[in-house]
Amino acid sequence: MFSFEYPYVFSLLLLVIVCMLFCKEKKRAIYFPNIELLTSLTRSKQVLLNALRITILSLLIASLASPIKTEQIILDNTQGHEISLILDASGSMAYGDKFRIVKAIMVDFISQRKTDKLALSVFADFAYTVVPLTYDKNSVIKMLDNIEIGVAGRRKTALYEALFLSSKLFNNSKSKERVAILLTDGRDNTDSVPLEMALERANANKIKVYTVAVGNQRDYNADVLQHIASSTGAKFFSANSQKSIEDIYQQINQLEKSDININKYEKKNYYFHYPLSLALALLLIYFWRKNTWSLSK
Amino acid sequence: MLAQEILLRAKKNVFTNKSAGELSKIRGEGLDFCEIRPYEPGDDIRKINFTASGKTGELQTNIFNENKQINVVVCIMLSSSLHFGSQRLKSETIAEVIALLSCSSIKQQNQTQLLFFANDEQRLLHLNNTGAVLGAIETMLSWDLLSVQPDFKMLNDYLLQQQKSMVFIIGDFYQQNDYSLIAHKHQLSTIMVRDTLEENPNFSTELDLVNATNSSSITANMNKGLASKYQKKLQVQDDRLFSHFERHKVNSGKLYTSDNAFIKLSQILR
C-alpha cells in the first residue's frame, strides 16, 4: 500500500504559502521610471521562476514526508492459526433470522483474524467445502456473503459429515494451531459419517473443535456437542441471542490469539529519492533560468 | 544652495552669450512687416491690403511678424519618474532647464510664465526677474515627486485657452498624449529629459524595482540582455512620439542628465 511515513510534514506547505506571501526575499531596491514597460518584459519569466520555486519546495517536502510502499511479509506460516469455520445452512437456521445474524458475526470474526488461514464449510443435507484454507480473507467473506439457506439442502443436518470433511482440510497442514468452529442449531440426522470417525479424523489432525449451539436447547444435542469439544480439547458454547453469539466468537478469538509480531513484519520500500532527484533537477533549471536566461538570447 | 548654483550657472551662460538674436519668427500682431499673401478665411479684415488687392484682382492681406516681446510659457509635466538619475536627478536637470529658459526669456524682455502640472494641481509662476526664477528653481527642487502623476488634460485645457505663445513642455514623456491641438495653436517645443541609465538599465544584478507612483515593486535580474530588450522597446515608444512631434511641426529634443544643458538646449531650440 502506498503511503507517507511522516504525513504531518505536509503541514510545512502552509508555511511555504505564508512565506511566499509575506516573507519576501530582501534585495537592493531602487525607484525606477516606466516600470510598466519593464513588467511586461519580465512577467513571464517571473511566473516561471515562482512556479519552479513552489514545485521545488513541494517536492522537497514530499521527500521529507518519506513516500513508502508497505508490504506485509509473513515469515513463518506455521506460527499462525488455521481455522475452519463450519456453518449450519439447514432450513431451521432461517427461524428467528439466525442465519443472517450468525453470518454477520462470522464476517466480523474473519476480519479480526488477520494473520491466520481460514476455511469455510457449510452443511445441511450434505456437507461441502466452500473455501479451503487460505489467507485470502476477502474471498472468504465474499463467499460467506453469498451463502444462503438451502445451498446444501434444507431438511437434514449432516453435522458429523461436516466435521469429517472439515478435518480433512488439515491433512497437509504445517500449522501448530488448528481450530474448527462448528455452529449448528440442530442434531445430526444423516448416517453418512459416524461421530467416532469424524472425531478420530479431527484428533488425528490435532484439531480443536469449538462447538457452538444456537437456538432452542431442545433442537440440538448438547451432550454430543459437548463431547466433540471436550474430546478435541476445545469448549462447547450455547447461545440463544445475538449478543451471546457475539460473545462466544469473541471468547474464541481471545482463546486462539496469534502472536502477530513473530509471524509477520512489514517491508517498506522507500521512494523519497524520486521527488528529491526531481527537486534537485528543477533547482538546477531554476538557477540556470535565474542567472543566464538573458545571456542565452 | 543648489538652486542658487543652478541660477548662477544659467545666468552666466545666458547673459554672456551673444549669439542668440532677439528677432521673433512668430507671425502675429507685431509691427514688423513680413509679406503680402492672398486673403484666407479667418484673416483679420483690417489687414487687407487694398492696393495690392486692386493690382492683382483678388483680396491680399499684409502679414506681420509677432512683436519681439512675446509670451513664453514653460510647462513642467511633473511625475514620480523624475525622481531618478545616475549622476544627478532628472528633476535637477529640469530645474536647470527652467533657469536657462527663464533667464533667456527675461533677457529678451518676454512675458514668461512657468506652470507645474501634477496630479490635479496646477501651479503658475510669473517669472519677471531672476529672484522669481530662483523661487521657481527652489519650487522645482523641493517638490515631493513621489506618488505624482502628470495631468495632460489640465495641460491641454490650459494651453488651448491661452493666446498664441511660445510654449515649452518639459518632462520625461513616458505617458501618451496628443499634442496636435497645442502645436496647431502655439509654437511648441518639447524637451524630453532622460537619464542614460534608465534607457539602458544594465545594473548587472538582481534588484527590487519600485514604482514611485504606487510603491508597487517587481524583482528583475537587470542584466545586459534584459537591458537591451528594454532599450529596444523604449526606443520604439520614443520613435513613435518623435514622429508625432515631427508630423505636427513640434520642435523636440532629448536632454540627458549628463549633458551640458545650455549647449544641448541651444542645439534643440536653434
Question: Care to give the gist of this entry?
Answer:
The complex is a heterodimer of chains A (297) and B (270). Chain A is of the alpha/beta class and 297 residues long.
Polypeptide structure, described:
The complex is a heterodimer of chains A (297) and B (270). The longest helix of chain A is centred in the N-terminal third of the chain and has 30 residues, at 35-64. Chain A contains ten helices and ten strands. Mean pLDDT of chain A is 85; it is low at 293-297. Chain A is 45% helix and 22% strand. Chain A has two domains: 2-66 and 272-292, no CATH class; 77-261, Rossmann fold. In chain A, α3 (98-112) packs antiparallel against α4 (137-146) and α5 (159-168) packs parallel to α6. Chain A has a six-stranded mixed β-sheet, sandwiched between helices. Chain A is α/β, with parallel strands linked by helices. In chain A, a hairpin with a 3-residue loop joins β5 and β6. The radius of gyration of chain A is 32 Å and the shape is rod-shaped. Chain A has helices at 12-22, 35-64, 98-112, 137-146, 159-168, 195-204, 222-231, 242-255, 260-263, 273-292; strands at residues 2-4, 29-31, 67-74, 81-88, 117-123, 127-134, 177-184, 207-214, 236-239, 264-270. Chain B has 270 residues and is α/β, with parallel strands linked by helices. Chain B has two domains: 2-18 and 68-268, von Willebrand factor, type A domain (Rossmann fold, 3-Layer(aba) Sandwich); 27-65, no CATH class. Chain B contains nine helices and eleven strands. In chain B, the strands form three sheets. Chain B has a six-stranded mixed β-sheet, with helices on both faces. Chain B has a three-stranded antiparallel β-sheet with strand order 1-3-2. Chain B is globular and about 75 Å long. The model of chain B has no long low-confidence stretch (mean pLDDT 86). The chains are: A alpha/beta (297), B alpha/beta (270). The A-B interface holds A 25, 27-35, 37-42, 46, 290-291, 293-297 and B 79-84, 146, 172, 174, 198, 201, 205-212, 216-221, 223-226, 229-230, 233-234, 237.
